[in-house]
Every structure is written in structure tokens, then in C-alpha cells.
Amino acid sequence: MHRAAISGTLVLLAALAASAPTAARGEAGPDAALRESVHDVPVPEAGATIVVTSFRPPGAGRFPWIVLSHGTAVTKEANLNLARYRPLNPVREWLRRGYAVFVPMRRGYGSKTAAHLGDDYGSCKKPDFRRAGDGAALDLLATVAWAKTQRDVDPERWLLVGQSAGGFASIYTASKRPAGLVAVLAFAPGRGGDPKTRPGEPCGSEQLAALYASIAPQIEVPVLWFYAANDQYLGPRVQHLWFDRFQGAGGRGELVVVPAFPQAYGHGVFPSAAGTPLWTAAVGRFFKAQGLALPF
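Predicted structure:
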């Protein structure tokens, strides 16, 4: 367990190109070159169905795979109008390394008429991040269960990967100990950020720190926490606070903070083409340091 800094060189509205859906179902057809398909996947515990986009590398498998989770916009209206999440820069990076990619849209996002989001934490004055985590975990675990029915993926070699609120969702879901999970890669993980009203200081940071500490003992796999130093959603104080509470409670993993990143208030290194060398280098080192028997 250690911190690392990588030399090198996005609010959630300004970062939506980075942290939330970018191409609507119907706005762009599936990309045959990426073996892209769109699926309706049931979430039995919620009596609902979510949209999951799949991408596959060439070949017959069995592929290692990731569940890739999107972020959250600042307003409910923006979240209801989000398009299907297909962050092609990181998707292509995973495909070329031989991974299948499964990308769920969590309940409520992009529905336009939903009464609420499945992972809503309530208000900044009284946030309930555990409720948000449980809601997100229902969708991610439903995606995992569906993915494991696909004959070309390996049920024992997969990762939870997420951006922003999707990073938080990935960490929280790991506490449910799904079988076959190897690691969590959380890019700018957190909730409650708004760079216009609270630059760098998300609401409920102490409550979220306590939650991270409470779930750390239940997480059996290593977690990569990856941020940029100038993130105006989730600034340096909370980056270190959350990781320190997680690690102090027994969580395994590594905190990586890269230098200031110019796009989307520093919040979108992972989805951006310019950020690809930064996060791929961090993941490569993380895999090696943690002894993960997966390609990268």
C-alpha cells in the first residue's frame, strides 16, 4: 500500500463528455469494428431494466473483462437527459489489450421521465451515500450477473472500473464481494462535487470518508484511486482524506495523483485521449505492484 505520483502533463456537467454518457441509443449505431452491441439487462431486485453496451476484442474468448461505470451530472435534469455511455477512448484501450467491456447505464440516467436516480444520495445538507452505493451496486451486480452468462468471457477474471460517481459505485460494489472480481480501478472517485459552487470541496466529504472506512474491511481486492491534482470536483484534501480513511480501515490499494490536467476542471483524465498515457501507465504499474495475473 503506497502513494505514487506520476509526472506528466473533467462540475459534472463540464465533464460529462468525460464522466457520463456521450452517444445516445439511436443517435449513433453500434460500431461493428468494436463489436459493439446494446442490450436490455434486468435488475431483478429493483424490478427494472437497464441499458448495457458491450464491446469485444477480436477472437472467440474467453476474454478478461471490465464493467465500466459512468459519472453523474450536477442536476437531475441533466442526468435524465444523458445519452448512452460509450467512452470510446478508454474502450479502445481496453479492447486492444484483449478485454471485453460492459458499460451499464444506471437506473434513471437517460430515462427523461424517471422520478429519481437509482443511486441518488439526497441533498448536500443530509447526504446518504450508503443509499447511493446500494442503489448503484444493484445495477452493477446485475450487469455482472448478465455478463457471466456470456460464453466468451472468463467469470474469474474481471474488474470494476469507474469514472467519478462511477468510481465510487465501483468501490462500493466491491464491498459486496462478487465472485471473480480481481481489482477495482477508480478514476476520480467520489460524490457531491460541483466546481462552480464548491470548487474542490464536495459536500458531505466527512460522511463519505466514514463510509469508505466502513466498507474497507469488506473489500477483498486492491483498489486503485486515481486523481489529478487540480480536480475541481474532488480536490486534494478529499482525495487524501478518503484514501487515508479507506487504507486506515484495512483497505488495500494505491493512491495515484497526477499533475494538473487541463480538461474538464481536472476531472476527466480517464476518458480523455490526452489522459490515456497517464492512466494506462498508472494501471500498468498497479497491476505489477499488486501481482495481478491479467494482461495490460
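Summary: The CA atoms of residues 12 and 73 lie 5 Å apart.
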